[in-house]
Amino acid sequence: MEEAFTRGEGRPRLLDLISNGRDWRSYAAAEEKKLELRLGLPGGEDWSAGQEKREHPIESALSLGHISKVPKSTNVNASSGTKRRFLVHVEPKTEAFQQQQQQQLQQEQLGFLQLQAKGKESLQQTSGSAEQQSLEGKGCGPHPPHASSTKNAAVAHTASQSRVAATPVVGWPPVRSFRMNLAGTAKASAESNNGSSAAAKKIENDKKSLFVKINMDGIPIGRKVDLKAFDSYDKLSLAVDELFRGLMAAQADPLAASTQKNSEEKHVLTGLMDGSGEYTLVYEDDEGDRMLVGDVPWDMFVSMAKRLRVLKSSDVSASSLRAVGRKRTSNS
Amino acid sequence: MVRGFGGAAAFPDEVWELVFSFLAADADRNAVALVCRGWHRIERRSRRRVFVGNCYAVAPAAAVRRFPEVRAAAIKGKPHFADFNLVPTDWGGGAEAWVEAMAGGWPHLEELRLKRMVVSDDCLELIARSFKNFGVLSLVSCDGFSTAGLAAIAANCRNLRELDLHENEVEDNCLNWISHFPESFTSLVSLNIACLEGDMNTSVLECLISRCPNLKTLRLNHAMPLEKLVSLLQRAPQLVDLGTSKFSADHHPELLSKVESTFAGFKHLKSLSGIWEAGPAYLPAIYSVCESLTSLNLYYATIQSPELLKLVSECKNLQRLWVMDLIEDNGLIAVASSCKLLQELRVFPSDPYGVAPPISLTEHGLVAISAGCLMLHSVLYFCRQMTNAALLTIANNRPNLTCFRLCIIDPHTPDYISQEPLDAGFSAIVESCKDLRRLSLSGLLTDRVFKSIGASANRLEMLSVAFAGDSDVGLHYILSGCKNLRKLEIRDCPFGDKALLDNTSKLETMRSLWMSSCSVTLGACRQLAQKMPRLNVEVIDERRGRPLESWPDDFPIEKLYIYRTVAGPRSDTPPCVWTV
């Protein structure tokens, strides 16, 4: 965005007498310079351990055109060897501590090697404990947040031969959420174009997440919820309550929101589905009809709902629901 | 000996203004402004375009005051990872403060481009009323507004040339907003409404299109049925950039010939997108324009490999191609031999969660493209397997890469043949591609790759890292190298306090740093914030715990966003964000 924007329009142009061809010729003419690894140290000898390989410009594993066929176990030794040296330099406290570090690292190394041999369950255990050990060694504090993603990764790792779907991690793979639904639909309609509608349906239903928009009356910013993350109406209701509670509090009294009033004082959206509360939850299906949430079995609801809305109960009446749907389509 | 130059007084201001107007880069204009007071004054009064990469880096009032004659402004809000739901929806990026300041200080504003900001309908109404000569509104990845706000724009902006709505979340509450363009309105050049979800009133749209003879870009949403699309397009044979709606219908020979003749009528079409749910029946109608296309976006076209192959093979002049991985390796090999002018390739995953049978799109496709397309400089590629050898080959083939984003879908995936980390491959990329400005890493990576990046990636401006590295050294390599780094975003890496605290001054040379699910503690954030008053250190935690002040120093941070600013801590933080 930035480049195109600053170049802009209406700026006077210098006469460009040099033809475009020259740019491409320069690539062919460029000589390959020898690369020298040079890192500017910020000071502090703690990092010097990492530089011990500086004399060799590029480590053998990295040189262009050379693929090392070094077997995996040796490689693991090499990388954790470097790591071991680094850690020892960083925390040069007492000898006993150093020994402890080395032990931990050896265990971790062992644990890593075990990863390749054992099955799924022990995988998760060893990788989890290895993570914990390495992090304790660095003195970083409590349970690392990404241990679960390591677990996921480990699962995906060994399962690369058989196509097991990886446990979904938030925001991964980095595809935009409105595209995610479309991507699934894309595959599904490609399948149905080919005549295998059963496969298409299966793909649609097997999707790991189903994001639908949810808007609340009076709040301009909509949200998205993943219907597949819930298995019952109660959970959905709770989630909707949580989702909008904060926003409503902020709108009602901006000062209150910023001073973090406690949960007892917050709005609670109850009775979303039985009409007893101040707000009611409705959904729109693919024909644009609005219906009360809660009438059909949960699974059917998930397959039908395209969009959710939280309306003021006073605005909702049994007859108006269908009529609203009709009105929408007749406007176009 | 030549007498010293007389100084700014020797020439009238207009002459300097003209000279300065040849400077495109803001950096150059900023340098000019530092020379002397005279030049500072002349430069600031003549700056017409302002780009604000982070809406919180400077106070709106300050920007408006410094450059009073701005005609075009571009502002960005949320961090990039907001695209992937990593940033809380109420984090911020609201446009009101900026729009209010601009409405007061830049009455002659003609162009406004906002990206990843929360734009309300009130904002849109204010924009519509405040700028008499408003011509260009571009909203990219924004949310918070509805079609009612668009109606205000349509009704009031008499000279609107460009309305570009790209991937926004728009509430659909005013179905007939298009009819708010008055009958006398004829200035439209570009209309992109592909992200809208509702039905459009086709006859109103047709009327609008017919009375705007300068219309060059038209991107519709998917809702319009094919028959209506065709009758609409027949009103605009002068289009250069077209985004169609649904491209499938029940097979109808009459309709098919209409579609064919419509496309044959496009003598100037260079860019094609949309083509939602393209059925094999109607796709061949596009062949007549393929030869002239320079940009083709098949993201929404659910076409399988054989048809895709045929289609892209016709596009001999293609410079930009966005496509699903349904194209497969064979399709990319065909692209490599047919599309010799290709500069940008993006391949998206049709099945990101891997529930369907695997697609035959591997590293071979990308290698073929790198060999066949000599002008390729920008790549975004989603795949499931990669090797160091392939990356080496790509690096050797295409040293002219400026943007290389590789996403291997399963985290921590190694080279599938040697089982090694992909350090060697990515190192080759940064060492060979000297002009690389943007890089995204994936796969199994150790600290070694960061050593190479820090040392070799001298032009790198944006780096995205996920599930990589072994320790803090990795982050240290990046922060102590990468001279031109502006944006760094990291998730799920074992990077922690030490690297941050040893490289604090680097952070002020960058626009922003995002770290989530790493190993940073609150204590480090406090130290950093204290040492660097011109950084905003925002700790984001959605677990709704006790306020920040009561947490101990070793508390692990969930998400961290650090950015340089001259405006101090912002006043609109939501409950889940604390400025340390």
From TrEMBL, chain A:
Residues 71-80, 122-135, 147-160 have a biased composition (Polar residues). Residues 209-313 form the PB1 domain. Residues 61-80, 121-160 are annotated as: Disordered. Its main location: nucleus. One of its GO terms (biological process) is regulation of DNA-templated transcription. It is found in: Nucleus. GO terms for cellular component: nucleus. InterPro entries: AUX/IAA_dom, AUX_IAA, PB1-like. Belongs to the Aux/IAA family. Homodimers and heterodimers. This is Auxin-responsive protein. It comes from Ensete ventricosum.
From TrEMBL, chain B:
Residues 11-52 form the F-box domain. Coiled coil: none annotated. Pathway: Protein modification; protein ubiquitination. It comes from the Eukaryota. It is found in: Nucleus. It holds the Pfam family F-box_5. GO terms for biological process: auxin-activated signaling pathway; SCF-dependent proteasomal ubiquitin-dependent protein catabolic process. Keywords: Auxin signaling pathway, Nucleus, Ubl conjugation pathway. Its main location: nucleus. GO terms for cellular component: nucleus; SCF ubiquitin ligase complex. Part of a SCF (SKP1-cullin-F-box) protein ligase complex. May interact with auxin and auxin-responsive proteins. This is F-box domain-containing protein.
